[in-house]
Amino acid sequence: MIKKLLAEVLGTFALVCIVMIVVASGSIVTPLLAGLTLGLFVYTIGHISGAHINPGVTIGAWSIGKISIKEGLGYIVAQFIGAGLAILVVGGFLPEAASIITSAINLENTPVVLVAEAIGMFFFTFGVASVIYGKTSGNLSGVVVGLSLVLGITLASVASVGILNPAVAMGLGAFNIMYIVGPIIGSILGMNAYKYLMNT
């Protein structure tokens, strides 16, 4: 269990660091780099922890019976530890990062944002579920998960920042109900939709 938790800390740390650095730099390739980073960790730690590195994904996996409550809670704590470490490291090297990120993204706290995050997360975790259920070739698992994230972020960005990850939201200073509840709802719906279609 310790190795699984350490893998989740490491993966979440890297993902939050990448997103914070890219957003602070003003680049428009955040979705692509987030997808590439997640895909990389699917290949490197997927066999250890499943490479959730997202509390929403962990809750979605629990909703379809693929992780226990005890293990899921451990994962979520590990993910937020990873995010906290990323905030400390990025803030240490780029003290101005927080203010730049705040000015770079428009954080609206409206129900529309929640819906957008849920929709984006639905399509992201629909792809993740195909890997969880072994319906995607192992050689392509990272590609499918990474591209699913890019798709989800792109869809969500129509009406939100397109974060789809409460741990990343913490790193971006967007830790509010819309960016927490939206991804959780979307993940539960996305994973269960795949489960339903797979079993019909």
List keywords for this structure.
single chain; 200 residues; mainly alpha; Glycerol uptake facilitator protein; 9 helices; 76% helix
Would you write up a description of this structure?
The protein contains 9 helices and no strands. The chain is an all-alpha fold and 200 residues long. It has one domain: Glycerol uptake facilitator protein. The protein is globular, with a radius of gyration of 15 Å. The model has no long low-confidence stretch (mean pLDDT 93).
- Give the strand content: under 5%
The value of Rg in angstroms is 15 Å
Q: What is the CATH topology?
A: Glycerol uptake facilitator protein
> What overall form do the CA principal axes indicate?
globular
Coarse structural class? mainly alpha
Mean pLDDT: 93
Uncertain segments are: none
Helix content: over 70%
What's the total number of strands? 0
The level 1 CATH classification is: Mainly Alpha
Number of domains: 1
Query: CATH superfamily assignment?
Result: Glycerol uptake facilitator protein
**Tally of individual helices:** 9
Distance between the termini: 34 Å
* CATH architectural arrangement: Up-down Bundle
Order of helices and strands: HHHHHHHHH
Major β-sheet annotation: none
In short:
This protein has 9 helices and no strands.
